[in-house]
Amino acid sequence: MLGKRYINRWAFAASADFVRPARASAICSKADLTVTSPIQEMRKASPAFRQALLRSEKKRVVAAILFLSIFEVLMLVRIFVLGSAMSRWGVLTLLSLIAFEIGLLRAVNRVLSSGADISQAVWYLSVTLESLCPAVGIAFLTSSRLPQDYRPLATPWALAFFPFILLSVLRLSPRLCWVSGIVSTVGYLGAAHFTGFRFTPGSSGFSVTQTATLYFAFLLATTGIIASVVANEIRIHVDAALCEAETRHQLQQVEHELQIARSIQQSLLPKIRPQIVGFQVSGWNRSADDTGGDFYDWKRLPDGRWVVVLADVAGHGIGPAILACVCRAYSRASFNTCDSLPTALKNINNSFAADLTPERFATFVAVVLQEGSDLVELLSAGHGPLFIYNAEARTLRCLQAQALPLGILPEMDGAIPVALDMKPGDIVLLITDGFFEWQNPKEEPFGAERLAAVLGQFSDREPEIIIAELYDAVLKFSQGTPQKDDLTAVLIKRVALEACPIEIVAAARTQKRRHGLRS
To answer: Per the CATH hierarchy, to which homologous superfamily does domain 269-514 belong?
Structure first.
């Protein structure tokens, strides 16, 4: 477009206002999901992340209750069926821990439904009780038939450490896994010490039970470390999944809002062809994004004339779409009087320029038609080329703009409109550069010559069909390359009066007499 070339000379750059958000997987990069990062702490405080932690804790508590119940049943079988010498106080100890876990489960359920939170002290109390329970069993509740130095190794209580450490992974807290491993190791060594374990060599060196006890303690500490690493990895993936879900939800909201914006913008475009005696007029628009910076409009003026306008705000997306709506409003208000075309365009520029930032501008073209008259007035502010087709000579000529684009200068003076004498079959095509600048895979633009060929081939058809053929030709030429700019076209075709419906001609003559015009 001519106006856009002016702007390039003056080093103004037009850019799209709306860029679609990056994919959620890029936003939630693993590097940003370390446990100690501020972003992680922020997400931890988010309702979605808290809910995920509580649901995981609920599963862990249920699994702990199930394990304790199985351990309880096996203990009862050993004591009352198989005649084991295990202390019956162990049954009461397990029941007490099960009761604590049931209370914790009820607390988690209440918090899940209310949206509140549980104090960190509760989690540390829980992990401490679970980790010390096997140590209490080793120290006080093992079978009296076991030799003292074998009690830390041969009792089932020693095996109970590992399920609790592994279940701590579901807390999704590496720190709590560390606490579970450390408390279990210290508790185990304390219980072993209580039963008589001393790490002092005898006359023949360290005994088998001494080395095995230390080996077992080392395994407990190692299990805690492994649980911590696994919990950290799971936490990262859970956090990333939640982040992706939240981002997808936000994208869906943005898409929904964009669709609403698109529907509003499309509703501002004319719905039906204007009934102008001696002319057929049609318009069409297709945005590159959900919303765009192009618009077209037509309106009957108070003196009976018609004005047809087309505008192209620099860029495409939300920002230009808003400016296009503003420009349309100024256009309708300015053409609501009987001012001349240069005066109306000057008023539009004065109002619109005050709303623009320095890098913003819009090209604008207006065509004034008189029903039944061959004379057509055209004035372009930076919009070009404009295509004028002569049906008798079957030639196409291009008009450039008569003034600078809207918003470049605060005042628009000296713009002189172009007068066209249109005969039946002649065409004025107002079109945005998205058509002839669309490139194919070889980076060749569609160009004005191909556009002229299509216009000449289908010039005898109705305006809607001509525009559809233009779009189809551009699509075929592009060979699948994406649309990068908004597409808008308005086609004005001069037709003989005989081709107009009788009632439209009669209404036009009545309107002329009302304004003192000759037929």
So the answer is: PPM-type phosphatase domain (3.60.40.10)
